[in-house]
C-alpha cells in the first residue's frame, strides 16, 4: 500500500493558533479591520463598523467555502463581509454570500418540534423518534431504516449520523444529496488514485497558464473561483477554455468556447489523450514507474476518438477549435482542468472524470503548482460528508467495507451492530422507500421531494413511510410537509462545527447568533436519540469539539499513510483550540504540515502505490430529436439562488436578478414551435411536467432545453424540475443523469398575463401559473390565468388585493387592467394585467414603493407604467448588490463607458461581489454592436437580461 505523496507544497501555516493547541488569540472573537475592496452594501464593511469585532465563519452555499466575517447587530441580524484572510476567497464574496445578512430572519424558521402535526417538547419528540425507530427495527430489521443526509450539514453532524446508523442501529442505508452533486468525481478519483483525493488547491488557478473548465458554469456556480481565474487572466494572460454545451456567463471570460454536443465529453478527452500520445508528449517514464493500465486506456481512447475528424463528428465542434484546444493543452506545462456538475451529473459521469484524469496522468500534470485536475464541489460540505463516510458506499474516514477496515472501525467505535457492506445509493434508496423495503427515513437538511429525479414519485413514496423524520430549520418545504416528525435544527449563524471545501480545506463554521426558538444542533439531536436507543456511552458528546476530536482520531487510527484522509494533527484539541482552529488542508498528521498538493511524486493510494489509467467505455451520445421527445432537458443553477431557495429566497435583492422559473431554448426551436420570449410553455418529460417562462437564447444548442433547479411548490405553481428528471444513474457512482432527459416543450395558451407588487404576500386563486418572490418593499407575484370568463376576472383579481384607496385603469378592448391600492399616501399594491407577456417594466414601479406622499396625479400616472419625467427605469436588474439595471448600464455604455471598470466607476455595478461582471461585459458588447435594451421595453417581469447572450433577443 502506498503512502500518500506530499507533492510540491508551499509553506503552509499550522492550523493551530499560538504555542501548542489552545494557545493564542481566538479567531472567533478577534478584531478584524474590514476589507475595503469588497464591502457589503448592507454596511458590513462600512467605516462605522471598522473597529467592531466580528466572528469568522464560512459561507453555507457552494463548495468554494469562502470565509465570512459576521458582525452581529445584537438584534438577530448581522453585517456580512468576506474574511480577508481566508485562503479560499481573501475577502471576496459572491452575490449569494454578500446577501447572507438578509437571510437571518426567523419568519420561516421551524422553532419547536412537531409530532404528528402537534407541537411537542424535545423530550416527547426524541422519545417518539427513538421508540418508532426501535419498533421498525424490531419488526422489519435494521435495513428498514435509512438516513438521507445533506452536503449542508456540518462534518460533526454527518459524523454522528453515520456512526449511529452504520455502527449502532446497523443499517448501511446512509446516503446524501451529495450523491446528486459529485459522486462521479468521488468514483473517478477512487478508480484512478485509489482514494477520493483532490490533488490540487485553489492557488493553482493563479499559477496555471491554461485553465480548462469542463461542465462548469463557474461564473454563476463557483463565482469566487471564477473571479480568481479571471484576475489571473487579466494579470498574466492565463488562457481559459470552456467546455459546455451552452454558452453561459462563464463563456464571457473564455478564450475558447467549446460548445460540445451533450454527452460527448468522453470523446473530446479521449481524442486529447490520443493526440498527446501521437505527438509524443506523454511522460513515458512516469507512466512506466507510477501507473498501471495505460495501454488499455489508450486502446479504448483510440477506438472512441481515433482522429481529429472523429472527435469533431462526435462532439459537433469545429475542427479548428478542437485542434486549438489540443495544441494549447499539449504546449502548456501548467494546466488545471476543473470539472463540475456538467461532468458529474451523467449516466457516464465517472468515465468522463477518468477521461480527464487519464490526460493529466499521461503527461505528469498532477499535484504540481499550477498543474493538475481540480473537481469543483457543489455544496459547502460535500467533501466533509465524503470524509466521514456519509455516502452509502463508504464506511467511515475514507475506509470501505473490507474485513480489516470493518474490524478497525468496529473496535474504534466499540460498535455493536457494524454493517457488513454498502447501503443503497440515493436513487435506489428512494426506490426502496417506494416499494416498502424502507419503512423509516430520517431526512436531514435537504429537500428530496424537490431535488431527487422523478420527484413526484419520490413525494408519493415519502407519503407511504411508516415514519418520516425531518430535521430542518424551515417550518415548511415540500418534504417537511409530509413528515410525521419535524425537528427544529440550528441554521447558519447558529451552527458550530467544521466544513471542508473543494481543495480539502477544513474551516470552522462558527455561531454568531443564539439558537432560534427551541432549535438544536443536528449532532445533539442525533446523540439524544442514540442515548434513548441505549447507546449513551458512545454518544455522550458535550460539544461539537468532542465530536470533531473523535473524528480526527479515527482518521489517524491505525493509519500509517495508507489513508490520505488523516487529520489526526488536530485530534485532542481543547474546546478553546477548536474554536480558534484556522482553515487547513488535509492530510494533516501530527508533526507534519498540512499538505497543499498530492501525487506530484506518485504515492497513490492503490495497493501498489501506482495510479490507474481507466479504459472508458464508448460514450452513448444522447440522440436528439427522437419521436415524442425531441429535446434533451439540461438542468442547473442560476447566479443568485441556492438549491431550493429556502435561504436565498429570503433575500429581496437576490430575487431581483431572476424572479421566475424559465425554460431556455434556441431561437430556431422557439420560432418553429411558436414560443415567444416571456410567454409560458409547458415542458414535459416521461416523468413529469412544468410550466415555465420561455427564455429564447442563442447560447442554447438547437434540440436542447435548459431549466433551473431552484423552484419548489413553496414558490411556484409548477416548476419542481426534479419531477422531470429521469432516474438513470452512472453505474459506478450512482449519480443520476440530470443533464439529458428526453423532453418536449409547447406553448401554453393563457388568457391574461400579469404581475402584482405588494407589501404583503398575495395568494390569487385559480391561476394557471404563478411564481412568488421577495422584493425590498415586500412581495412580487408573477402570474397568468385563463380567467373565470365574461369579464368576471376583474372583480376576482381586485378582490384579492388589500384594502385601501383604489385607482383603476381599464382598456377592455385591449384586455388591459391595472389597479393601484394606496394607503396613507403610500403604495400598498399594484396589479398589472394584459393579454400578452409584454407588460410594462416592473423595476421602476418597484422603486416607487419608497415614496412617502404620492399625489393623486402621480397615482394615476403610475398606472401608465412609464417612468415620470426625469426618473430612471433600471430595466432588468443585473447588479443585485447595488440594484443597477440593464437599461442604466446600457445608457452608461452608450455614453462612452465601454469597459467594466468604467461602468463600475460610474454606477458601482460589478464593484462589490463581481458576480455580474460577465453580464456587464455582454451588455457593453451589445451596445457597441448597436443593441441597447431599454427598461420600458423589457418584455417580461422576469429579469432575463443576464441570461441572453444575443441582446437582439431582448428587443421587442
Ligand atoms: Fe458562498 Fe459565493 Fe463563496 Fe460560494 S462563491 S462559498 S456561494 S460566497
At a glance:
The chain is an alpha/beta fold.
Domains, number: 5
Query: Remind me, CATH topology of the largest domain?
Result: Rossmann fold
Query: What proportion strand?
Result: 15-25%
- Residue windows where pLDDT falls under 50 for at least 5 positions: 1-11, 18-52, 933-956
Please tell me about this protein's structure.
There is one protein chain. This protein has 956 residues and is of the alpha/beta class. It folds into five domains: 114-181 and 381-541, Rossmann fold (3-Layer(aba) Sandwich); 183-374, Dimethylsulfoxide Reductase, domain 2, CATH 3.40.228; 631-747, Barwin-like endoglucanases, CATH 2.40.40; 752-862, no CATH class; 877-954, Arc Repressor Mutant, subunit A (Orthogonal Bundle). The protein is built from 29 helices and 34 strands. It has a seven-stranded mixed β-sheet, sandwiched between helices. A six-stranded mixed β-barrel has the order 21-25-22-24-23-26. Strands 28-29-27-32-31-30 form a six-stranded antiparallel β-sheet. Strand 23 (680-685) and strand 24 form a beta hairpin. Helix 3 (155-169) packs parallel to helix 20. Bound molecules: iron/sulfur cluster. The site of iron/sulfur cluster has 14 residues, from helix 1 and helix 7. Iron/sulfur cluster binds at residues 59, 61-62, 64-66, 89, 93-94, 96-97, 222-224.
Amino acid at each position: 500500500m502506498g503512502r500518500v505523496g506530499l507533492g510540491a507544497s508551499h509553506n503552509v501555516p499550522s492550523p493551530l493558533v499560538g504555542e501548542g493547541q489552545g494557545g493564542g488569540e481566538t479567531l472567533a472573537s478577534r478584531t478584524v479591520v474590514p476589507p475595503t475592496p469588497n464591502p457589503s452594501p448592507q454596511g458590513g464593511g462600512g467605516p462605522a463598523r471598522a473597529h467592531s469585532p466580528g466572528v469568522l465563519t464560512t459561507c453555507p452555499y457552494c463548495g468554494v467555502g469562502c470565509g465570512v466575517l459576521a458582525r452581529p447587530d445584537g438584534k438577530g441580524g448581522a453585517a456580512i463581509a468576506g474574511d480577508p484572510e481566508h485562503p479560499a476567497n481573501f475577502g471576496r464574496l459572491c452575490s449569494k454570500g454578500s446577501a447572507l445578512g438578509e437571510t437571518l430572519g426567523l419568519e420561516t424558521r421551524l422553532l419547536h418540534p412537531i409530532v404528528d402535526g402537534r407541537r411537542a417538547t424535545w423530550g416527547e419528540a426524541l422519545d417518539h423518534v427513538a421508540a418508532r425507530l426501535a419498533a421498525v427495527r424490531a419488526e422489519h430489521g435494521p435495513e428498514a431504516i435509512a438516513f438521507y443526509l445533506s452536503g449542508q450539514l456540518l462534518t460533526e453532524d454527518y459524523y454522528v449520523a453515520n456512526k449511529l446508523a452504520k455502527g449502532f442501529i446497523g443499517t448501511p442505508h446512509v446516503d446524501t444529496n451529495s450523491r446528486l452533486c459529485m459522486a462521479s468525481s468521488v468514483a473517478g478519483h477512487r478508480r484512478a488514485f485509489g482514494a477520493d483525493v483532490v490533488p490540487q488547491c485553489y492557488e493553482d488557478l493563479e499559477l496555471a497558464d491554461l485553465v480548462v473548465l469542463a461542465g462548469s458554469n463557474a461564473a454563476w456556480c463557483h463565482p469566487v473561483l471564477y473571479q480568481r481565474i479571471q484576475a489571473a487572466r487579466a494579470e498574466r494572460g492565463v488562457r481559459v477554455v470552456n467546455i459546455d454545451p451552452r454558452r453561459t456567463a462563464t463563456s464571457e471570460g473564455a478564450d475558447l468556447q467549446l460548445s460540445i454536443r451533450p454527452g460527448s465529453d468522453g470523446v473530446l478527452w479521449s481524442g486529447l489523450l490520443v493526440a498527446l500520445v501521437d505527438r509524443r508528449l506523454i511522460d513515458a517514464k512516469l507512466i512506466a514507474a507510477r501507473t498501471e493500465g495505460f495501454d488499455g486506456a489508450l486502446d479504448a481512447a483510440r477506438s472512441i476518438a481515433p482522429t481529429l475528424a472523429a472527435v469533431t463528428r462526435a462532439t459537433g465542434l469545429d475542427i479548428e477549435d478542437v485542434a486549438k484546444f489540443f495544441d494549447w493543452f499539449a504546449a502548456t506545462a501548467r494546466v488545471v482542468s476543473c470539472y463540475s456538475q456538467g461532468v458529474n451529473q451523467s449516466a457516464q459521469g465517472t468515465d468522463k472524470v477518468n477521461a480527464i484524469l487519464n490526460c493529466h496522468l499521461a503527461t505528469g500534470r498532477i499535484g504540481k503548482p499550477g498543474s493538475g485536475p481540480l473537481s469543483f464541489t457543489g455544496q459547502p460540505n460535500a467533501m466533509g460528508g465524503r470524509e466521514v463516510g456519509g455516502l452509502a458506499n463508504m464506511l467511515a474516514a475514507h475506509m470501505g467495507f473490507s474485513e480489516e477496515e470493518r474490524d478497525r472501525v468496529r473496535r474504534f467505535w466499540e460498535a455493536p451492530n457494524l454493517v457488513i457492506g454498502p447501503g443503497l445509493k440515493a436513487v435506489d434508496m428512494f426506490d426502496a422507500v417506494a416499494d416498502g423495503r424502507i419503512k423509516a427515513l430520517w431526512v436531514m437538511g435537504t429537500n428530496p421531494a424537490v431535488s431527487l429525479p422523478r420527484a413526484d414519485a419520490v413525494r408519493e413514496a415519502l407519503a407511504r413511510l411508516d415514519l418520516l423524520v425531518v430535521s430542518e430549520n424551515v417550518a415548511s418545504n415540500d418534504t417537511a410537509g409530509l413528515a410525521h416528525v419535524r425537528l427544529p435544527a440550528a441554521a447558519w449563524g447558529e451552527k458550530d462545527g467544521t466544513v471542508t471545501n473543494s481543495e480539502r480545506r477544513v474551516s470552522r463554521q462558527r455561531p454568531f447568533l443564539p439558537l432560534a426558538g427551541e432549535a438544536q444542533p443536528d449532532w445533539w439531536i442525533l446523540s439524544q436519540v442514540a442515548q434513548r436507543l441505549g447507546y449513551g456511552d458512545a454518544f455522550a458528546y458535550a460539544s461539537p469539539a468532542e465530536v470533531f476530536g473523535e473524528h480526527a482520531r479515527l482518521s489517524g487510527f491505525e493509519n500509517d499513510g495508507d489513508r490520505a484522509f488523516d487529520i489526526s494533527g488536530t485530534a485532542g484539541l481543547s474546546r478553546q483550540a477548536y474554536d480558534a482552529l484556522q482553515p487547513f488542508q488535509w492530510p494533516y498528521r501530527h508533526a507534519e504540515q498540512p499538505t497543499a498538493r498530492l501525487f506530484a511524486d506518485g504515492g497513490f493510494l492503490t495497493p501498489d502505490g501506482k495510479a490507474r489509467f481507466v479504459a472508458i467505455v464508448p460514450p452513448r451520445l444522447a440522440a436528439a430529436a427522437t419521436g415524442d421527445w425531441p429535446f434533451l432537458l439540461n438542468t442547473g443553477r442560476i447566479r443568485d439562488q441556492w438549491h431550493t431557495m429556502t435561504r436565498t429566497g429570503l433575500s429581496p435583492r437576490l430575487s431581483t436578478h431572476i424572479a421566475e422559473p424559465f425554460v431556455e431554448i434556441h431561437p430556431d426551436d422557439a420560432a418553429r414551435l411558436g414560443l415567444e420570449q416571456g410567454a409560458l410553455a409547458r415542458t414535459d418529460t416521461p416523468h413529469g411536467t412544468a410550466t415555465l417562462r420561455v427564455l429564447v437564447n442563442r447560447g442554447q444548442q438547437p434540440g436542447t432545453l435548459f431549466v433551473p433547479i431552484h423552484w419548489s411548490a413553496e414558490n411556484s405553481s409548477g416548476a419542481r424540475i426534479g419531477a422531470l428528471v429521469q432516474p438513470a444513474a452512472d453505474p459506478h457512482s450512482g449519480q443520476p443523469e440530470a443533464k439529458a432527459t428526453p423532453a418536449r416543450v409547447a406553448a401554453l395558451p393563457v388568457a391574461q398575463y400579469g404581475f402584482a407588487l405588494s407589501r404583503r404576500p398575495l395568494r390569487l386563486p385559480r391561476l394557471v401559473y404563478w411564481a412568488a418572490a421577495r422584493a425590498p418593499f415586500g412581495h412580487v407575484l408573477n402570474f397568468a390565468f385563463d380567467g373565470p370568463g365574461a369579464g368576471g376576472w376583474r372583480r376576482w383579481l381586485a378582490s384579492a388585493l388589500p384594502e385601501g384607496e383604489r385607482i383603476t385603469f381599464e382598456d377592455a378592448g385591449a384586455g388591459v387592467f391595472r389597479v393601484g391600492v394606496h394607503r396613507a399616501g403610500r403604495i400598498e399594491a399594484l396589479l398589472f394585467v394584459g393579454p400578452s407577456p409584454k407588460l410594462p417594466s416592473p423595476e421602476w414601479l418597484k422603486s416607487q414603493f419608497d415614496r412617502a406622499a404620492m399625489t393623486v396625479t402621480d397615482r394615476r400616472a403610475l398606472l401608465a407604467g412609464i417612468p415620470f419625467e426625469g426618473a430612471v427605469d433600471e430595466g432588468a436588474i443585473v447588479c443585485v448588490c447595488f440594484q443597477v439595471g440593464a437599461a442604466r448600464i446600457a445608457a452608461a455604455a452608450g455614453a462612452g463607458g465601454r469597459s467594466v471598470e468604467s461602468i463600475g466607476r460610474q454606477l458601482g455595478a460589478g464593484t462589490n461581489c463581481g458576480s455580474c461582471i460577465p453580464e456587464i461585459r455582454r451588455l457593453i458588447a451589445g451596445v457597441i454592436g448597436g443593441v441597447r435594451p431599454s427598461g420600458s421595453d423589457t418584455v417580461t417581469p422576469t429579469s432575463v437580461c443576464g441570461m441572453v447572450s444575443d441582446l437582439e433577443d431582448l428587443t421587442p
